[in-house]
Predict the 3D structure of the following.
Amino acid sequence: MTASIGKTLLLRNARIVLPDRVIERGTLLIDAGSIARLSHGETASKGASLAYDLAGLTLFPGFIDAHIHGAVGVDTMTAAATDLDRVSQFLATRGVTGWLPTLVPAPAADYARAIKSINEATTSTRGARILGVHYEGPFVNSVQCGALRAQFFRSFSGAGDLDDLPKLVDEHAKHMMTVAPEIDGGVALVSELSRRSWIVSLGHTCADFDLLDRAFAAGAHHMTHFMNAMAPLHQRSPGPVGWGLSGDDVTCDFIADGIHLDRQMLRLLVKLKGADRLSLISDAVAAAGMGDGEYEIWGETITVKDGRTGNARGAIAGSVITMLDAVRLMLSVGASEIEVAKMAATNPARLLGIDQDCGSIEEGKRADLVALDSSGNIVLTMIGGKAVKGE
């Protein structure tokens, strides 16, 4: 299937996952890269340059991955712009239409080099759109370092401490940072980032309820890879897990790979937190899409065996899944298609503040779409009305 933004397209006979229901047989008219009309049943193709019959396929909104360190051998910390383009093209084949390259704690020169490449790639990628950048740290707690390199962790003493964490030049680019509020100056950091319109997420943390409440008041309303790299739930010390579960205005993202969280925990999380407050992420590293083996990532050897990552310290070092894998797993544990569409697209778009433009299948929004067959295989990925994967 080939299509261009300049053509008017008709996608007909598809099951379509909407924010509140599933249409069993619907049609989308796509014009200038956006959804111009959504219809039930058959619609005449008059006026459309191209028409495609999607009978037997289910249309989801394009997946958005707000936390991914790389794939197909590419690490966002060391990638050139052409490498990031390769990741974007790979992600599009897995249903991702937008992503945030995610950076780990590192020296200032490494950040500068990574941001330079992302700046160059943002306007030239041929697959999934680069929507911004996510700094995972460096202002996090070494007690919950996970696979991050604690020697590059920092405390915060004032706005100048952010000077060597460069922003992207695109005025529409989104900037996100994962922060542990218990570090020295942590709540002040949340306030400063919020003042600068950054998205602040809480993670790699042991903070208690009171401190987390203060961070929330300062502007941190989201949590990074919930339940992982944070103090566990305890009946006498509920900590960040208890706080995240109990906060109606707190949203969380999580890694649905069956490794970071058990399948039963995935069911429980959706039941307790609700799909409206959850986002799927991959947290994938450069080994994603490469198979089992040993890989040099972040200055150390990371081993992948049976789909599980591990470093020399025995820590899980990110994942090797894609958002498609996460979507399939959530469907397999009983989440509905509507719930999965929210977690894979709508809620990430809302987190990034782009939900007026994308994240759901509605008239007037971008034609960022993924068509799955009955086995969960991708037949079509469309980004802005252009088919970047399809037969």
In short: Helices lie at 81-93, 108-122, 186-195, 209-218, 239-246, 263-273, 323-332, 337-352. The longest strand covers residues 22-31. Residues 1-5 have pLDDT under 50 and may be disordered.
